[in-house]
Amino acid sequence: MNELAIICADDDPTVLSSLEMEIKNLVGNDYLIELAENGEDALEIYEELSEEGNEIVLFISDYLMPNMKGDELLKQIQERSPKTLKIMLTGQADLKAVGNAIKSANLFRYIAKPWQPEDFRLTLISALNSYHQDKELANFYADLEKKIEKRTQELQTKNQALIKLNQEKNEFLGIAAHDLKNPLSAIQGWAEMIIEDYDDIPKAEIIDVNRLILNSSRQMFELIKNLLDVNAIESGQINAELSCVDILPTVQTLVDSYSERAKTKNISLQLHRQNNPYYALVDKSALQQILDNLISNAVKYSPYAKHVNIRMRQFEKTVTCEIQDEGQGLSESDKKKLFGKFTRLTPKPTGKEHSTGLGLFIVKKLVEAMNGNVWCESELGKGTSFFVEFPAFLL
Ligand SMILES: Nc1ncnc2c1ncn2[C@@H]1O[C@H](COP(=O)(O)OP(=O)(O)OP(=O)(O)O)[C@@H](O)[C@H]1O
Ligand SMILES: [Mg+2]
Q1: Would the pTM count as exceeding 0.70?
Q2: Which of 13, 75, 354, 382 could pair with 104 as two cysteines, CB 3.0-4.6 Å apart?
Q3: What's the mean pLDDT in 318-347?
Q4: The CATH fold of domain 243-391
């Protein structure tokens, strides 16, 4: 039902009807007005109205009634419904009863009988206003509390994310520092050796040592370049400038360059392609970086005398490049970690190549920035295929 209700209890029927009339004059049909001639009936009416889902706004009770007095009745109502406002009518100035009711029933007002209609009217208006203001305030606070709870939760989530990011950054810094320390201390050692033994070292050996220094500095340079890329990615600074590019020349150049380098491992690279361009919507320098890592990985993690196949495929909406090797392949658990940061997994470089474990992380972020896709299919002992797919540009 959900109506607003006022209950009046008085053992005098004339008082009851005059209460009803005066209340009705003020509130019209906005409230249900229920009358009871004693405390028990009043409690019963209260229970019924509440069970039906009505909201009992005001309870007016006479003090002097047989069996149950007004202060006791209002106390019981207070126990059931603290929000309901209570007014007591007192025939004679019974201050003790009023005091009781104020304490135990949180009495809103008392009205001395006989009352002046205007006094009654003003008391009623003030009671109803007070009830609705309290209700609005309660709703407002409930709403506020919900908002505060939601914001607190949001802040906690953000805080946790920040803590995680900070931990990651520390970890990142630790690994980076460690990876830089090794080549740097090697360079230092070789430089010291040249200074100390310059007169005794044959020229050819100095050149060899310098080669080692060069190699170590390249490693450090590569790591720093990757670290800067990761930093740019994580601070949201990937600026992929997409344009229509035939990706074939980039693949071809990389295949030629890695074929040369792979000769030392007796690994051959073969490009499978149709006789047509493969236009895609990509950023040319990011494309080069992506394919470079995937092809370099295939060579880096393949044992000697294996083959690497690079297959170009043109679909209706995409252009795909598959880089397939005959290396040791990846386990299921390695596959899950593949595109993370600093992931040096079970397969190790087969020709002492350097590995920072950042390549595939960068590849994935760059591919995503170009609305492409990269994934891996691999079977332990058989080899690995990396697929990279870009949106095709149809002329
Ligand atoms: N084709 C592959 N076959 C087998 N394992 C691979 C292959 N490609 C990558 N991996 C494994 O995944 C790891 C991560 O590769 P990723 O390219 O991210 O880093 P990396 O090659 O070690 O270093 P770099 O940052 O120089 O690329 C490698 O260390 C290797 O264990
Ligand atoms: Mg790599």
Answers
A1: no
A2: 75
A3: 95
A4: Heat Shock Protein 90 (3.30.565)
